[in-house]
Amino acid sequence: MRAALALACVSVVAMPCFVQAQTPAKQAQAEVRMLAEGMVSKPVSGYDAVALLAAWHETADGRYFKAVQDAVERGQAPLEAAVVVDEVLATKKYNDALAELQKQPKPMVKMSADAHMAHLVDLLERTPEDAAARKELNDLAKTADPLDALRVYALAKGARLGFLPASDEARAVKLWAKVPMSAPASARLLAATEIAQSETALSARGKRVAVDAWFNSQTRTGLDGKTELFHYKWDDQRNSGFSFFGRAFQREGAKLETIAAAPTAANLKGVSVYVIASPDIPSKNPNPHYMDKSSGDAIEAWVKAGGVLLLMQNDKTNAEFEKFNTLADRFGVHFNPVLRNTVEGHHYEQGRVEIPAGTGGIFPAAIQAYMKEICTIAPSGPGKAVLTDKGDVLMAVAHVGKGTVYAVVDPWLYNEYTDGQKLPPEYPNFTAAKDLAKWALEQAR
Prior knowledge:
Helices cover about 40% and strands about 15% of the residues. It is an alpha/beta fold. The strands form four sheets. It has a seven-stranded mixed sheet with strand order 4-1-5-6-13-12-11, sandwiched between helices. Strands 2-3 form a two-stranded antiparallel sheet. The model is unreliable at about 1-20 (pLDDT under 50).
């Protein structure tokens, strides 16, 4: 253990020597790994747990989450970490504490201005409508820059999520280069997770990415006892959610939102990317909303005007096909109601799908992806196959008017197979999520 820690210390000191030629983002990506690996080499405690959660969100390395979970179970993690574990695992141990935390616009303990900025930006991530917190964050951000890693974190994250001016991203990158290596590891790791995203953090600023909550409008009772939407939703942190896919869009600076009504010209106005996943059937939702002509007309007009539509179907036992195809057929990406890629237990190889480098202009590098229980696509007209596996089309793209449609045979990028907790690391679905998000945002007009 001592040798490992000594090596980690040497690596920290030596880092500036071997990363001088790298961009700040590449340097930070390497540092995220190095610092996180050092933390998980021993029992995690204190604010390291919060930093490790940020590293988990950045890398989708499930080991980091499990280390935080262990710290929570030992009573060695702060409340901020405990409530995230609560949400991800759908437990209720910390739910009352979470409710109390959300009532507090300010931290309960005295902290530095930069630590308070970090607290505020994390609070705003949960409750972006908090105008008082936003004003306080902006006021603090205008003060002189000390050499503090937490200020780097707050400035960069605040700018990326749109709570601070875009210029604060450049401030954060410049300040990052001056933060001493002797800064507390937890603060430095938090800062590194944001600087790691700096090359793309503003590339899609102002663009809006909406997920459907009408054609898939399943509900459950939340940890607070209230009814909530779930299943392929941005704010669903459990296995069923799209929270990691959402982060793939947010790392480009895009804003996430949900459309919980039938699509119209009005509620699609200004949306850059619209995601519809796994339309409901009665066994999933006793009151499903089916695709209809007026919805199809609104979506088609929006696509032709420059929108990017992501259609993520499911297999024949989990989704509706006939009515949904009245939309898909408009773009030549007909979904076939079949079941393929069933997986027995942990035989993950049964769900393996090889995505070659350059596929559809979407995935720059080859990816060994995982897609479990899927359908197939029959492209025609504007719909063109971009990924074929064992004779079946699994992805297709259509260019219609000024817009673009991406069709895939499963909502394969949901948390269960993206956040690194379940799949072996040889299936980097989060990498695929980042590639798809980047491409979709680039297509938007």
